[in-house]
Design brief:
Glutaredoxin; 2 domains; 5-stranded mixed β-sheet; two-stranded antiparallel sheet; 7 strands
Length: 357
C-alpha cells in the first residue's frame, strides 16, 4: 500500500469514526459495557470474544487510519520546515521540492508512449495529448516515490514515530462441528482418518469456500498437494460461504450437501470444481449420476433442502463472526489466511504449527 496520503482514502476510513469512538483509544478488548437486552448487560469484551475476526478488522482499520493521519501530518510538517528555511510560502516550497525531484526526460516519455500505446485511454488522443498524459502520469508516479522516501527517511531518523500499537491478529477459536465435511487426504475417498483422528490431528484446516468462486478453484492444486504431503497429520474441512453476487453458489452448495447425505460430498465437490462453468441444475443431476448417487433420494433432498439451508446459513454466520468477507478464507489451527494462496504459504504456516507442537 502506498504511503501517499490521499484525502479520499482517509475519508473512507472516517465513516468508522462513530464506531471506533465507542471502543476507546486503547484496546477494544476491555470490560466496558456495550448494551443491555432485557436487563442483561453485554460488555465489549463479550462481543469481541464472539466476533473475533470482525473486531480485529476494526482495530486494523483504526491502526491504518492513525498511521495514515500520522504520515499525512508528517508530510505537512516536513514542507513547513522547508518553507521556513527558504522563507517562502509552504505551497511554493512543496512545488519547488517536487519540481526538482520529478523531472521527466523526453526519453522516459517516449519509452512509456511505446509501452502504453495500446491502452484504451490513449487510443483516440492526439499525439500532443498522449505526450501530456504520459508526462503527467510519470510525474505523479515520481511524486509518489518522493513522498514515500520522505516518510521512510523520517521513520529512520525517528522524526516520525507511530506509537499506537499495531494490532496482532488473534488465533481464532474455530470448533469443528458434526455438519462439517472432513477429508484426511488428497482423494475424494480419503474421508476415514489415517494416522490421526479428530482433535488428535496436529493440523486442522477449515476453509470457507463456494463453488462459483474462481479463486477457490485456483487453490485446489495447492490443497491436494498439502493433503498428500501431510497425510496422517492433517484434516481439511470445507464450510459453505456462497457470495450473493454468484447466483449458482447457493444451489451448488445445496447439491453438494445433498451428496454428503449419501457420503459423497467430496466426489461432488471435485466434479463441481472441475466443471466450474457448468453449474446449472441439469449439470448437478449429471454429476450425481456420474458419482453413482441414488439420484431419486438426491432429487428429494434438493427439492426440500430446509435443513441443509440452515447449515449453510450457520456456516455463513460463523464465517462472518471470524471476519470472513470473501472466499476462499482459511483457518489453519485458527490462524487466518485469505485468498488463492500458493502451496508455499500453506506450508509455511503448517510447518510453524508442527514445530510448535
Amino acid at each position: 500500500m502506498t504511503m501517499i496520503i490521499r484525502m479520499a482514502q482517509v475519508g473512507k476510513t472516517l465513516v468508522l469514526g462513530g464506531l471506533l469512538a465507542a471502543f476507546g483509544t486503547t484496546s477494544i478488548l476491555h470490560a466496558e459495557q456495550a448494551f443491555k437486552i432485557y436487563g442483561k448487560p453485554y460488555t465489549v469484551e463479550d462481543l469481541a470474544k464472539e466476533n473475533q475476526g470482525q473486531f480485529f478488522d476494526v482495530e486494523v482499520k483504526k491502526y491504518e487510519l492513525i498511521s495514515n493521519l500520522a504520515r499525512d501530518r508528517y508530510l505537512q510538517e516536513f514542507f513547513v520546515k522547508i518553507a521556513e528555511k527558504d522563507k517562502v510560502p509552504v505551497e511554493k516550497a512543496k512545488a519547488d521540492y517536487l519540481d526538482a525531484k520529478t523531472k521527466v526526460s523526453d526519453s522516459e516519455v517516449k519509452e512509456n508512449l511505446d509501452k502504453f500505446k495500446d491502452y484504451p485511454q490513449l487510443k483516440d488522443r492526439s499525439d500532443t495529448d498522449k505526450k501530456k498524459m504520459i508526462q503527467d502520469y510519470l510525474q505523479k508516479t515520481k511524486a509518489q516515490e518522493v513522498f514515500e522516501n520522505i516518510i521512510a527517511e523520517g521513520v529512520a531518523k525517528k522524526n516520525l514515530e507511530i506509537q499506537y500499537p499495531e494490532p496482532k491478529e488473534p488465533v481464532y477459536k474455530v470448533s469443528v462441528i458434526d455438519t462439517d465435511p472432513v477429508k484426511y487426504g488428497p482423494d475424494a475417498k480419503d474421508v476415514k482418518p489415517v494416522g490421526c483422528s479428530g482433535n488428535d490431528c496436529k493440523i486442522t484446516i477449515i476453509e470457507y469456500s463456494e463453488f462459483q468462486c474462481p479463486f477457490c478453484e485456483r487453490v485446489q492444486p495447492a490443497a491436494k498437494r498439502i493433503l498428500k504431503e501431510y497425510q496422517g497429520k492433517i484434516r481439511w474441512i470445507v464450510r459453505d460461504f456462497p457470495l450473493g453476487f454468484h447466483n449458482r453458489a447457493r444451489p451448488a452448495a445445496i447439491a453438494a450437501r445433498c451428496a454428503k447425505e449419501q457420503g459423497k460430498y467430496w466426489e461432488m465437490y471435485e466434479e463441481m470444481f472441475k466443471n466450474q462453468k457448468a453449474l446449472g441444475d441439469a449439470d448437478f443431476k449429471k454429476y450425481a449420476k456420474e458419482i453413482k448417487l441414488d439420484v431419486k433420494k438426491w432429487d428429494e433432498c434438493v427439492a426440500k433442502p430446509n435443513k441443509i439451508v440452515e447449515v449453510i446459513e450457520a456456516n455463513m454466520k460463523s464465517g462472518e463472526k471470524l471476519g470472513v468477507t470473501g472466499t476462499p478464507a482459511f483457518f489453519i489451527n485458527g490462524r487466518r489466511l485469505s485468498g488463492a494462496l500458493p502451496y508455499e504459504e500453506f506450508k509455511k504456516v503448517i510447518d510453524s504449527e508442527l514445530a510448535a507442537k
